[in-house]
Amino acid sequence: FNDKLEVKRQAKKFIQQKVSDFKAHPIVVEKSTSVYNAIVQLFLEDVGTLYAVDTEGNLAGVISRKDLLRAALGNKNLQELPVSVIMTRMPNIITINSEETLLEAAKKMINFHIDSLPVVKEVDHKNNTYLLLGRITKTTITRAYLEFMEEK
Ligand code: ADP
């Protein structure tokens, strides 16, 4: 019984850690970048998701592996097709703030069936303007878990 309580206490301690302590660098492309270049970036950076920003550096879209595969199946000229046409755009992007917890990040990724969350700071809520600060992925959570277990 005590063991169970202790496990729960530790799990709580883990999951209540802040996003700010675990966020990784976002891999970013301009929203005018071609789908072809985005695919190259995906391989070069070894990531599953790219974020598109506008000229001011604000978050404009999310481009996942499936988005790129779908575009590639479309038989279009990928060198001419901008990622802005195929990405998931604001206001449909699920984001997270630095001050939120790993629990909230995990819940959002599971509930919305997505692999990553852009970590943002709100600039202007009305205009959906968010500064992109980082990313949280399912890998981030797994890595955080390993680190947590190794510390103990
Ligand atoms: P994959 O395409 O590798 O399965 P995801 O499951 O993350 O990657 O993406 C599935 C779909 O959800 C894609 O169309 C993608 O654009 C979209 N998506 C991914 N992350 C987010 C997010 N944070 N907010 C909104 N949509 C997202």
TrEMBL record:
The keyword Ribosomal protein does not apply. It comes from the Bacteria. The lineage of its organism: Bacteria, Bacillati, Bacillota, Bacilli, Bacillales. The keyword Repeat applies. The chain holds residues 60 to 211 of 211 of the full protein. This is Helix-turn-helix transcriptional regulator. Keywords: CBS domain, Repeat. Residues 22-80, 87-151 form the CBS domain. It comes from Neobacillus rhizophilus.
